[in-house]
Design brief:
GO terms for molecular function: terpene synthase activity. Residues 1-124 form the Terpene synthase N-terminal domain. InterPro entries: Isoprenoid_synthase_dom_sf (IPR008949), Terpene_synth_N (IPR001906), Terpene_synth_N_sf (IPR036965), Terpene_synthase-like (IPR050148), Terpenoid_cyclase/PrenylTrfase (IPR008930). The chain is mostly helical and 138 residues long. The chain folds into 2 domains: 1-58, no CATH class; 67-138, Terpene synthase, N-terminal domain (Glycosyltransferase, Alpha/alpha barrel), CATH 1.50.10. Helix content is 55%, strand content 0%. The chain is built from 6 helices and no strands. The chain has helices at residues 2-17, 24-37, 44-57, 67-79, 107-117, 125-132. α2 (24-37) packs antiparallel against α3. The chain is elongated and about 55 Å long. The termini are far apart.
Length: 138
Amino acid sequence: MRERADELKGEVRQMFGADRAMSVSAMVNLVDELERLGVDNHFREEISAALSRIHSEGLDVGMSNDLHIVALRFCLLRQHGFWVPSDVFDKFRDETGSFSKDLRNDPRGLLSLYNAAHMAVPGLMMLQFLHTRGPKSH
């Protein structure tokens, strides 16, 4: 059993080792999955290096419009002590400043956005507004 666990840890480390070939969005998902599984303690150094890259490089061109990835990146970086401004969510707002009605069709993105609202700091009105009201479904 321990041998299989060590083998799997090696495979995950190889995934991190190939991080330059891995997109930032894939790396965000990998770190999130390891944390959700509760095995992130086995990969602290790899996760730390990945988060530094995620913070410095930003999102891939195509992923910057994916609400789930933007919100997940925001949460992960904030949870690990990186500063990420809440204006990364501005592109998901309409001309009135409200969140786009198109978000109703993205439940995964909405859930990630809701989780991001809990990472708000005092004075960041956009996330505070979301936390209290959220996008309207009607």
